[in-house]
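--- STAGE predict ---
source: upstream dedup step, 1 unique chain passed
mode: sequence only
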Amino acid sequence: MERRVSSIRVFRSFVATAAHGSFAAASEQVSLTPAAVGLQIQTLEKDLGYTVFDRVGRSIVLNQRGHRLLPKARQLLALYEDMHNLELEQTELAGTVKMACIATAMGMVVRAVLRIREIHPRLNIEPGISYSGTLVSRIKEGDIDAAVSVRGAHKLPADVLYTQLYREPLVFIVNARTPRADPREILAQRLFLQVSRSSNTGTLIDEFMRRLHLRANDALEMNAMRTIIDMVKEDLGVTLLPLPRGTDWDRDPDLRIEYFDDPQAFRNIGLFESENRGFLTSVLREQLLALLAPRGSAASG
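--- STAGE serialize ---
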């Protein structure tokens, strides 16, 4: 009978739990919930066919087999890191990476692609603009290999990797000629130009407005933020949007940008990758992080 093999993530959780003595402490190191760490330990014990911890009240300690397994697990993780950090000749990387990104991130993606073409001429990155709400499912289905998109509230599929790239603040945007007033008063009087709530950004904005009790008497939904901004500049309505990286909206004389004093007033933009295609998409990740790193410092994951 063929045995099931536990993943590297499971062994990371095992080593962290052995080091810290609890699922709660280990969870902080491996960026999972304590419950998820507990489930991974159960998976490891099921795959191995024996227990590795003794449960004593609320504490967990390595048993005899766990002590024997620990150095082997550490060796396995070290070997994996060695494989991950292999230096490759430029000509070794070849293939095609199909990716998509939200419109506001395309400039950054193209700059990364141009760098990759210089370093790895046989690696073809095919970027395209797409709707944020479908990108993660397209990676899961194998339609694309990677995407730069908005991080939504939903849990990621197990075989999709995520790397945080940057944040964009949520701001209230009106025509520069609009008399100054509380956003609630303005929303009660003006047409609210709203990003489609079927998108990750639209859902985020809708939840943010509900939490702050911001209500619009009249609203019009549309997909393109650029179109919304053009309509605000013509004084056809007001809006609440993320302030995209690299735009000049905050310097446009026809617009007035108002920021929210709220720690949750932002959207996260990151790189989503198919774990099965990570050998190639990792090159894109490295270049995106390098572009975003402060000058004179190295990018960090």
